[in-house]
């Protein structure tokens, strides 16, 4: 199935996994809107995608996913520009990692409000548009959504919740023609949590790998739905 002239909104699409997905979709001819909390960062990412000679158009938006009205405005802007919304990729996320003794209430709320409530706002803002196109709502969870670890109480809670939330709304919306899936990556070579990507990250999943996976998922015949996809590096570094 061709994706040309489809439309997509990717939250947090200015960097990391979101940027990899945006690039892959734009290369397929999808018109892509990417958001960041900083409009300048979104515009900079959009220019990088356009410079790659993609077939799809690229729109930069300033959106804090913790703001429901901002997400509704973004969907409206996409519909005004391109007439429809086919794909919503709820990718924006944040991580605060600390023992519970040290984790602050502010860090807890920022993590939950971004990684979980932000996705709730995303589906509420886009569900009518996606019903109209028989579209796809994709969430980016994590293997941390099934595997807990010390210092991960806020992040684990947000991703465990996101995985469950995604599966529940999949059941809510499947009979209305809206497909919902979640991708749960392991170690990905990104700047997440202020990590600086370097050659030592070559063993990790690369952002273009996730982009290719999303393209394949969106091209799959609508009669079939991989509702939860775990993905991890084939090998880990030798110790």
UniProtKB/TrEMBL annotation:
Q: Which GO terms describe its biological process?
A: monocarboxylic acid metabolic process
Enumerate the InterPro entries for this protein. Answer: KR_dom (IPR057326), NAD(P)-bd_dom_sf (IPR036291), Sc_DH/Rdtase_CS (IPR020904), SDR (IPR050259), SDR_fam (IPR002347)
Domain Ketoreductase, which positions?
6-192
> What is any Pfam family matched here?
adh_short
Keyword Oxidoreductase attached: yes
**Membrane-spanning residues where?**
none
Could you name the domain of life of the organism this protein comes from?
Bacteria
> Which EC number(s) does the record attach to this protein?
1.1.1.100
Top-rank EC class of the record's enzyme: oxidoreductase
Spell out the molecular function terms from Gene Ontology. Answer: 3-oxoacyl-[acyl-carrier-protein] reductase (NADPH) activity
Keywords noted in UniProt: Oxidoreductase
By its UniProt entry, which PROSITE patterns does this protein fall under? ADH_SHORT
Q: Which family does it belong to?
A: Belongs to the short-chain dehydrogenases/reductases (SDR) family.
Q: Which PANTHER family match?
A: 3-OXOACYL-(ACYL-CARRIER-PROTEIN) REDUCTASE, 3-OXOACYL-[ACYL-CARRIER-PROTEIN] REDUCTASE FABG
Q: What is this protein called?
A: 3-oxoacyl-[acyl-carrier protein] reductase
């Amino acid at each position: 199935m061709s994706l040309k002239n489809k439309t997509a909104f990717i939250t947090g699409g200015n960097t990391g996994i979101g940027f990899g997905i945006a690039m892959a979709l734009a290369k397929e001819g999808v018109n892509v809107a990417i958001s960041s909390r900083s409009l300048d960062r979104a515009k900079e990412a959009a220019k990088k995608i356009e410079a790659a000679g993609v077939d799809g158009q690229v729109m930069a938006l300033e959106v804090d996913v913790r703001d429901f009205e901002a997400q509704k405005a973004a969907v409206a802007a996409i519909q005004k520009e391109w007439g429809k919304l086919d794909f919503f990729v709820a990718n924006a996320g944040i991580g605060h990692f600390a023992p519970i003794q040290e984790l602050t209430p502010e860090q807890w709320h920022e993590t939950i409000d971004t990684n979980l409530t932000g996705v709730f706002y995303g589906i509420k803002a886009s569900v009518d548009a996606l019903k109209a196109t028989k579209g796809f709502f994709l969430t980016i969870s994590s293997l941390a959504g099934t595997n807990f670890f010390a210092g991960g109480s806020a992040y684990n809670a947000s991703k465990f919740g996101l995985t469950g939330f995604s599966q529940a709304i999949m059941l809510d919306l499947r009979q209305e023609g809206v497909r919902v899936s979640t991708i749960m990556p392991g170690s990905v070579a990104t700047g997440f949590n202020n990590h600086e990507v370097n050659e030592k990250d070559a063993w990790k999943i690369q952002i273009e790998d996730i982009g290719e996976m999303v393209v394949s998922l969106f091209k799959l015949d609508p009669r079939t739905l991989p509702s939860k996809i775990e993905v991890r590096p084939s090998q880990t570094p030798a110790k």
